[in-house]
Design brief:
Length: 100
């Protein structure tokens, strides 16, 4: 069994640090799943943010992130059921969203 999650590129406008975010979907064997999501700075492993994916859709989003250099985040999806290993996405970049 393989746990997998994907990222959606939200927004297009770079710049302001008050409107950066990450989003994605967690699936386990192709089905949406509830998992704890943690984001860390990949250079220091410092905690950045956390959330939980929706149990019905697998969707998750973290908004209001400070601006980080391109590819400098690590995203972890931890298995709350203790059945699978964590999934890791490395060299992740947040995106700036329109508005605000």
């Amino acid at each position: 069994m393989i746990a997998d999650f994907t990222f959606e590129r939200l927004g297009i406008e770079p710049g302001r640090a008050d409107r950066h975010r990450l989003a994605g979907t967690v699936t386990v064997d192709g089905s949406p799943a509830r998992r704890n999501i943690f984001v860390c700075d990949r250079r220091t492993l410092a905690y950045v943010a956390a959330t939980t994916s929706d149990p019905v859709t697998g969707a998750w989003e973290i908004s209001g992130l400070p601006e980080y250099p391109e590819g400098s985040l690590i995203v972890l999806a931890l298995d709350n059921t203790a059945t699978y290993n964590a999934e890791v996405a490395d060299y992740v970049s947040q995106v700036a969203t329109a508005g605000v």
